[in-house]
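hey so i finally got around to running the thing on that chain from the lab meeting. sorry it took forever, my laptop kept dying and i had to restart like 3 times. anyway pasting the input first so we r on the same page abt which one it is
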Amino acid sequence: MRLQAAWRGTAATVTSLVLTIALAELAAWALLRCSITTLPSRSEIQASLAPREGSAVDQRIAPQPHLPEPLRQHILHPYLGFVRNPEIQRHVFNSRVVAEPVNEYGFFGPSPLQAGDPGTLAVVITGGSVAADLYLRSSDALRTELRSSPTRGFFSREPLRRSLSLVLWNRLHGRLLSELLALLAGLGDLQPRSQLGRASRMGTIEEVLAEATELWDRSSIQMWKTCRSNGSVYVHILQPNQYLAGSKPLDAKERRMEWPPDFPHRLAAEQGYPLLIAAGEGLERLGVPFRDLTRIFESERGTIYVDPCCHYNQRGNDMLAAEIGRFVAASVEAAGALPPRPWVGPGERLAS
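ok and heres what got predicted. didnt touch it at all, straight out
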């Protein structure tokens, strides 16, 4: 009798739980049906961005043999500045020939707008020469770190990832976040903004670095908001530099490559990096996924830097890729956007 009573109690509990979930899903479905709006599909967005045949954007710029090689390898993009010329077959980067092809947008790697499996996440690396070097040297290390990440959340797996209740919660969360961003924007408008909107002018190095840091800060916030509004996850990494005091014990080889103390680029790094670190702390307080990796080589006594500017050898890039991979995985987990299956499948690659 006791066993039968226990079974009846268990069955009643399970039935009640199933009914509760079913009712929650039904209510979520009804609310979503009432609030959903018609949005363009990914294929429609990609079609609108594709250059029309015969348009000015579709006109390729032929190689100019009379120009120096660095200039022949680049063309001026109307929005992005100088990018790689896709018509060039032999590209040289940091004094080495690169076998990686250049896509139609002028970047190493596959097209960032190519259609992909909806169950995977595409990783796009933006930045300058250090970002390009990270992709060319250590994209495999970054991919390995992302594959091995233990964070694939419980609610990201089947069948829970398809729950309408979670979709509804995500909608509400996004709405509250939008309201918070609007309040933050309004707060910013109340602060003195005399430096905004004016034309850049050359002044003292302190003035130039302050203006550059402000632009860097605003650009990161804008990229973060753009990514969030389009369902993407944005992370911002501050890369290491050998001229930041105490960031790495330089060995004899690295010291021989140092710029003189009065070299402009060195002065900019020495005085500008503390400003970037402080601004990065402000980005974190706003909620931007920011990670300061300027101290990643702090205990490395071997050679990491390969030139007097800022670039790293294979070990340095692999270390950076591993740290970035862990931070990306944690940020994606926090955003609830993890794929339901292994990270990289056949034919999939990281985009740069």
